């Protein structure tokens, strides 16, 4: 995304710009975000959000109940149906959630994740900062 804007100056000598309509949404910024100015050359600057993004790993503890029809004396089939994902869920209640770790995500990779159908393992391998000496994407951080 590229925009051309004029740099203006207020009565105190502070410089500012007025962003065109739609820029906040297109850039993924919010009103009040702190932006970093990066000089590219004499007439060109890049603006980046100063926000940090953190991928938080959590385990959710949920009570789930299923109803499974089985032949008489074959109640163990119901257990197999639940494990195989073939059972009809009739009740679900979140009990708790436990944070198990977190990792920093580069902002330039965040937009790709938002619009991606990658699995979490693929996401970690492709987009998460490597915070370890090895490249194991399944290593947990805390």
Give an overview in words.
With 142 residues, this protein is α+β, with helices and mostly antiparallel strands. Among the domains are: 8-49; 56-99, no CATH class. Helix content is 21%, strand content 35%. It is built from four helices and six strands, in the order ββαβββαβαα. The chain has helices spanning 23-27, 76-84, 107-114, 120-127, and strands at 8-9, 15-16, 35-41, 44-49, 53-67, 88-105. It has a two-stranded antiparallel ribbon. The chain has a two-stranded antiparallel sheet with strand order 3-4. The protein is rod-shaped. The relative contact order is 0.13. Residues 130-142 have low confidence and may be disordered.
Radius of gyration, in Å, reads: 25 Å
Strand fraction equals 35-45%
Arrangement of strands in the largest sheet: 1-2
- DSSP helical segment count: 4
Q: What's the helix and strand layout?
A:
Layout: E1 8-9, E2 15-16, H1 23-27, E3 35-41, E4 44-49, E5 53-67, H2 76-84, E6 88-105, H3 107-114, H4 120-127
Antiparallel strand pairs: 1-2, 3-4, 5-6
């Amino acid at each position: 995304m590229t925009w051309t804007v004029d740099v203006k100056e207020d009565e105190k000598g502070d410089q500012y710009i007025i962003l065109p309509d739609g820029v906040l949404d297109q850039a993924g910024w919010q009103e009040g975000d702190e932006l970093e100015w990066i000089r590219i050359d004499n007439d060109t600057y890049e603006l980046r959000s100063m926000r940090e993004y953190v991928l938080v790993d959590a385990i959710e503890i949920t009570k789930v109940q299923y109803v499974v029809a089985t032949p008489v004396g074959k109640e163990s089939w119901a257990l197999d149906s639940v494990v195989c994902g073939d059972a009809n869920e009739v009740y679900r209640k979140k009990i708790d959630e436990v944070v198990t770790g977190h990792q920093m995500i580069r902002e330039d990779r965040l937009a790709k994740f938002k619009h991606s159908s990658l699995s979490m393992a693929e996401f970690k391998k492709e987009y998460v900062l490597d915070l370890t000496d090895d490249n194991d994407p399944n290593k947990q951080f805390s």
